[in-house]
Amino acid sequence: MKILIVGAGGREHAIAWKLSQNEKVEKIFIAPGNACVEMLPNAESANLGSIDEYVSFAKDNNVELTVVGSEELLVQGIVDEFHKNGLKIFGPDKKAAILEGSKAYSKDFMKKYGIKTAVYEIFDDSEKAKEFLNNWKDFPVVIKASGLAAGKGVIIAQNLDETIKAVEDIMVDEKFGNAGSQVVIEEFLDGVEASILSFTDSKVIVPLLSAKDHKKIGEDETGLNTGGMGVISPNPFVTDEIFGKFKSDIMEPTLKGMQAEGMDFAGVIFFGLMITKKGVYLLEYNMRMGDPETQAVLPLLENDLLELIEKSFEKKLSEVKVNWKPLHSCCVVAAAGGYPESYKKGDEITGVLDFKETNDNKVFICGAKVENGKLLTNGGRVLNAVALGNTLEEAQKKAYELLKTINFEGMYFRKDIGGRFY
After folding, report:
1. What confidence score (pLDDT) does residue 422 get?
2. N or C: which end of the chain has fewer CB within 10 A?
């Protein structure tokens, strides 16, 4: 089988790594490319950009399965175009991808189908948004760009001045581009975040192991939002009771809502949750594997990933029992200095191309390229150090020990992924 993976980050490396373990997989193409092809058997990059290019490439190379990591192409309708051309692709069509592509749409969807979420208002006029905020009493308040903003379009404002600035940054100065033409203003939920990836065949939703992302650039969750600075799995705050509430208050009504709206696809739903004293709330949907959650969750998955995907297409996910290693994982992101704002590219990375993977230690490449036999930085989030352990503390210790063997100029990582333990 030949497989095409759409995307270029650590998530795509992790997906390719897991799929390559199936002996049926002859070739894996990753587009627009990832230096991880230097570390995987039978993998190569393909420099593709537009949806038409992906369709043509899949046809010309007899690709039997395409797996989409990129949220932008999902929202643009890559799945619809593949279907028109008789090509098998794992991911939501345009109709379902809007659950991620528009926070305004998804909030209204949650409200319509009784899914527990924060109180909110939607605005497409900056002056009306500011007028509304002038009467807001309960700070902090959350202001979100409605469109796709690479995980960075959320601002938590502590007072009125910050809220006004946030609206102007998003809607007037277009800090997040077109994503900010519409904003969602919602109550701040005080609690602990959790991520639950799941597979769906649109008949059932099968949740995977929980995870805890660390979104802020600074330790103790300070500073700017990023695409994620590290993850642990399972999330220690997702108890059996919390998981039960997630299923009854969020997952099951989501499935009913999707079915009522005629959303029919084989793919992934990522639930971003907030666990509070008042219960479990849904913050957002992502309609593909999360990054960097995928890098922490897949190494714990005992099932064959290709089998899960194929069962999704066959609408037989209900027959699958998902099994997990009785371990903990810790994924730490090493970023370029200056990320998530301006940062340098082109610095040599040592300790990765000659890295020997073990059952407990893995390195996934997020933003790097190979030139003249050297691995060079080529993005803000550069790589993931992932380790497994019998306890969370053991996994954390191994991940940070692994990072000591890797180096590039300006390398930055948080030292508290999973909580302070040393």
Report:
1. 37
2. C
